[in-house]
Write a structure and sequence with these properties.
- The chain has helices at 16-29, 58-69, 90-99, 114-119, 137-151, 169-180, 212-216, 240-247, 277-280, 287-305, 312-315, and strands at residues 47-52, 73-78, 104-109, 125-131, 158-162, 184-188, 207-209, 221-224, 262-264.
- The chain is α/β, with parallel strands linked by helices.
- Strand 5 (158-162), helix 6 and strand 6 form a beta-alpha-beta unit.
- It starts with 15 loop residues before the first helix and ends with a helix.
Length: 318
């Protein structure tokens, strides 16, 4: 099966079969990162530009490692040292980079829809590494890969997403991706951080719950979101202490969940605000495996966007 999309702008536009193709391909690529020489020639001759208009640690490093392990040529763009500081527009920046014969643009941008805007006139493929409050598709894909590795299947499982739903592109991508794969999604957080239309999001909608204990009671996994103060025009809760008291995930709260329930977080974590120290580092946590899976998922996305087929990764093993 071949991935038929030129770009990866979000999971809303993908089918369950296409999501499964990416996850299967990522499973094949995981083995590459365990080799002594962590490299395959899959994207030799392909040039990829990383345009990060917002700060990033995990996503940026993960994409760079994925590109290097696929043997692609890489160009890194920094907003702080670019002509953007002189007033250059996003379109001019992207078109100048494409004029240097770049094949794929991986971009993070603070404006929702920036990637869709670029896709209207760029010939290069575009991979969304996060756009405003819209989507962060590769984060949701690595979350799903982590869950599938733990459970074997996503169908029929229950995932609760907790926190700042309104400002979270991770929440939106997870809702689209998980519901398409047959997962029952519950979202929980302060009413001030809950978008009005959220119940109808995803395939078949999601359950909205404001009582934390009820939201996590039958969850197979809990995905905890960071409070995104940088996206809030005004503070939407009284204090960090009060937020943690009502919506924070602590060892005490986890006494109410199923014994096999796992804890996820896309990072960066605000320890003591949305998650306690002992939970973040506890035995239920799969936060570091999420980071590990991020490289394999991004290898899979870049490989498929470039025209590769899932089965080809098996031939290159060994």
């Amino acid at each position: 099966m071949q991935f038929k999309h030129k770009n990866l702008l979000g999971l809303e536009e993908l089918s369950s079969g296409e999501i499964e193709l990416i996850l299967d391909t990522a499973d094949n690529f995981k083995e590459v990162s365990e080799r002594v020489i962590k490299k395959v020639p899959a994207l030799r001759g392909i040039t990829i530009a990383n345009l990060f208009y917002e700060p990033s640690t995990r996503t940026k490093i993960s994409f760079e490692l994925a590109e290097k392990r696929l043997s692609a040529d890489i160009v890194n763009f920094s907003k702080a040292t670019s002509s953007v500081t002189k007033g250059e527009s996003l379109r001019d920046t992207a078109e100048n980079i494409e004029a240097m014969k770049v094949d794929i643009v991986v971009m993070r941008h603070g404006s929702s829809g920036a990637h869709k805007f670029l896709s209207e006139f760029l010939n290069a493929s575009i991979v969304n590494a996060g756009d405003g409050q819209h989507e962060h598709p590769t984060q949701a894909l690595l979350d799903m890969l982590t869950l599938r590795q733990r459970w074997g299947t996503l169908m029929g499982k229950k995932v609760t997403i907790i926190g700042d739903i309104m400002h979270s592109r991770v929440a939106r991508s997870n809702i689209w991706g998980l519901t398409k794969m047959g997962v029952k999604v519950t979202i929980c957080g302060p009413p001030t951080m809950m978008p009005a239309e959220v119940a109808s999001m995803g395939e078949g909608g999601v359950k909205v719950e404001y009582d934390l204990r009820k939201a996590i009671a039958d969850a197979d996994a809990i995905n905890i979101l960071r409070i995104q103060l940088e996206r809030q025009k005004s503070k939407l809760f009284p204090s960090f202490r009060e937020y943690f008291a009502v919506f924070g995930i602590s060892s005490d709260i986890l006494k109410n969940v199923q014994k096999d329930c796992i804890i996820m977080h896309p990072g960066p974590m605000n320890r003591g605000v949305e998650i306690s120290q002992e939970v973040a580092d506890g035995e239920r946590s799969v936060i570091l495996p999420q980071v590990t899976n991020g490289v394999a998922v991004r290898m899979a996305v870049l490989f498929l966007i470039a025209g590769g087929r899932s089965g080809e990764t098996k031939i290159r093993k060994g």
